Amino acid sequence: MTDSIHAAAARGFTDGVDAYERSRPTYPPDAVAQIADLLGLAPGRTLLELGAGTGKLTRLLAPSGARILAVEPVEAMRAKLLAIVPTAELVDGTAENIALPNASVDAVVVAQAFHWFDAIRALSEIHRVLRPGGRLVLVFNKRDEDVPWVRGLGEAIRRIASDEPQVWGNAWHDALGRCALFGPWESAHVRHVQRLTPDGVLDRIASVSYVAAAMPEVRAGVLGEVRALLASDPLTTGAAEVELPYSTEVLWAERASIEPGAVGIVATVNANAGGVPKPPVDGATVGRLGLHNDAHLEPEPIHGGPDQAVCLYPQEAVERVRADGHQAFPGAFGENLTLLGIEWAGLSPGDRLTIGDGEAALELELTTYATPCQSLAHWFIERRIARVSGKVAPQDARWYARVLRVGDVRPGMPVRLVRALPLAH
User: What's the structural domain count of the chain?
Assistant: First the structure.
């Protein structure tokens, strides 16, 4: 659910909100207890829930006494949420654009929604609003498709899926490994069952966003296939009630919190064929002219060349720029490496950054500020690109660097700053 919200999600969750509330499973008590423990939920604590839906998890966490702030961009779901959990406080925005100050919440939870998010933007925003030491928990109810008739349900649904993000896909999970703003990730699974009438199973399938949003004849075809499946499978034929098995996956990680200084980490490695934003990648080999899997749309000397081989930016600046109301996230400004924990104020040409350990470590030397250009203007209120200019805000400006020693770079690698020696007088 980006700033504009995925069209199929918005339409499907609006049209199918009643079916969603009736038929979507709850979360098992053991998983709820684990979530509350992981997040330290108690009176005096503030929890942010993103993509809260109709409050399926919210209502189970409310008894903890924690203050719950809920972001839910679909109006029909917000209305259900407030009716069921009136103590929840709605916050405007989306996971990628959270209308809260920096370091304002103790914990964040996302249930059955992270796959809809633009992962890098959401993780950056979550890092921004979380206090140091805070945790992020992701929760997914996944149907157990080891059971043949349940696998048949999944196949019927997937046949009409197009470009919608999927819980069962790898995209959202792979994105976690491309961002070191949280980690290491841990997970646990809790098995449970949902007991439904055959009509309840049909309701459950109708609540899937892209089934609800499909053309009537397509939706009818899917539901007809499910109806035939229930009538023919030995475990469901003639049953007044069926058991739909699930495995609830709980994933969690702590916010990477490093006091800015001379030691930090690579938060993301960003590369593409040119233009902005540059999306996060698994890693890169860095040669004398930059990342081997990266390119620029403009020729030298605007970008590129040995003295502008790598562009650098700090996550701390991303969060300061966001606090001023502009859009910012790793890769948004075209930087190749987004770093966390390096004190940006006072950097000078000749300062060196070592990335990695040992003789194979990548070594960079700062050369000059990267001048902001109009390709970045759409991220800024009133197109004020000077917000990241080295002349106006050096603590929030990008730096170019030359490559002194080639090497590989990946998210999470250690970064060490060595200041240039002062000139002798």
Answer: 2
